[in-house]
Amino acid sequence: MFQTTQYKGTKQEQYHLLIKQLDALLEGEPDQIANLANASSLLNQFLENVNWVGFYVWREDELVLGPFQGLPACVRIPAGKGVCGTAVSEGTSQRVHDVNAFPGHIACDAASQSEVVVPIFKDGSIYGVLDIDSPSVGRFDDTDEEFLSLFVKTLEKHL
After folding, report:
1. Sign of CA dihedral 35, 39, 45, 50
2. Among 6, 24, 32, 119, which residue carries the largest CB count within 10 Å?
3. In this structure, are residues 56 and 128 in contact, taking their beta carbons and an 8 Å threshold?
4. Which stretches make up the GAF domain (predicted)?
């Protein structure tokens, strides 16, 4: 959910506005690190009840920590490990209602209780993942997953 002081309208309308802002913010900027940093900042500013928003980038057969907002995080995650590694190995988004029930969950922040991870592709290959954690069980729903996937599709155009 977005901070209601900034946005009015349905959750879907709020996400549409956020995605338009991302597209405008990244337009014409070729630096991938700058674009990932601004994207994580934008999400962190507008999403409520999250404690970590950021990116892991695929480097030499593992995910490596990229730009993020939140507490220090795990630096390297192998494919197939944890929620992020599972998103990479399966090539699909992962929405976890309760991370404590996820087999092999990597606890970088003990406060995180739910998570959504969306894989990012560039030229048909894995580029990395968008990872968002919440201190509340069940924070993310179908709408979040759908629109965060659209957010990533918009980001992919600028990578």
Report:
1. negative
2. 119
3. yes
4. 60-156
135 DSSP 8-state letter: S
Q: Report the chain's C-alpha Rg in angstroms.
A: 14
Spell out the domains of the chain, with CATH numbers in brackets: 11-156 (3.30.450.40)
Q: List pLDDT tens digits, range 21-64.
A: 999 999 999 999 999 999 999 999 999 999 999 999 999 999 99
Q: Quick one: CA dihedral 104, 106, 111, 115, positive or negative?
A: negative
Separation CA 122–CA 125 (nearest Å): 5
Q: What is the DSSP string of 84-117?
A: HHHHHHHTS-EEES-GGGSTT---SSTT--EEEE
Q: What share of the chain is helix, strand, coil (3-state, %, to 5)?
A: 35, 30, 35
Q: Say if pTM beats, i.e. exceeds, 0.70.
A: yes
